[in-house]
Request: fold
Amino acid sequence: MWVTWLFVLISLEFGECSCPDLFEQIGECCYYFSHDHTSSGATWYDARTYCQELGTLLDKPIDLAEVGTTDNKCDDLKLMETIGTSKVAHTYFGGSDEGHEGTFQWKYSGQKLNIKNSLWYHDRPLHGSHGDTSDCLLAAIWGDYDRAYFTDWSCDSHYQFVCQIF
Reply:
């Protein structure tokens, strides 16, 4: 009997994933939201470097966040809801079609993001039609309900970002 209870207690203790300080758990994944810690944004490149350096400090693989690449361990819809409720209009994610216009790829995992994914805004991606490169993935808040959707945007703009522990 005691062995059973001990096993249950140990399972409860180690069964939950815990995130390091400054990170928020959504699903089984840990995210760092830059808007929680600084009011200034960064370019997509600088945001990616920041995430990777954070990973070096914590000795964990960290990069800009991805959706749909972790075998459903992360709650991608909850992540997008969190972006929407943050009221931060623009947030960089870890995808880009730089060098392969129209083919978005997650930079950490190397997996492709389907342009038919329901997280894209209805008339996106832009494919460079904005007069600039529009190569980097951005979650933007649209509509009356503050929903976050993906768009492609200039990598050189300064926006908030979200890092993920992989």
Summary: The longest strand covers residues 90-96. Confidence is low (pLDDT under 50) at residues 1-15. Helices lie at 2-15, 44-58, 76-86.
